[in-house]
Amino acid sequence: MDKNEMRKAFLKKRSTLSKEDQIEKSNIIFERLISTDEYKNAKTIFIFIDMGSEVKTVPFIEKAWADGKNVAVPIAKKDRVMYFVPLKSFEGLKKTKMGVSEPDEPIENQVFPDENTMFIVPGSMFDVKLNRCGYGGGYYDTYIREKNVKNTIGICYDFQLVDEIPTEEFDQKLSRIITEKRDIK
Question: Is the pTM higher than 0.90?
Fold first, then answer.
């Protein structure tokens, strides 16, 4: 099975999870995230707004705000251009063609990660060697490489984490992967 077939299979399996399962597993993942040093030391959390069957990030974003942390979310444009802007509320978000909720903010308002940022990364599948496979756009790999991002943490349901996934040279390894069952560094 090649990478694209694997990606499709994992996303299909993820979409069969019941809403209750998604919420229950997501809550466990966030309890784990909140207890990490990366979270405790972070001034800013870079994170995606979940869509579809992804790990639910909205409750975590609300917790980060409650803990006085800044939150930044991605805006993706054509040609692998992605930038992060501050998120202060869930009001005024726009849905993209892909169904992603994004703030309506120009690139001039972007913020950058530093060594104290907690940088949370989505994906379709991950492996125990800290590799990830995204959704095929290359946005996160490009961003992580260009900005030399530290503290990259992949979050996923445990079945999305396997022994090994096919990798390519531009794929960026993560610092850590957290599921509802495992925490791999």
Answer: yes
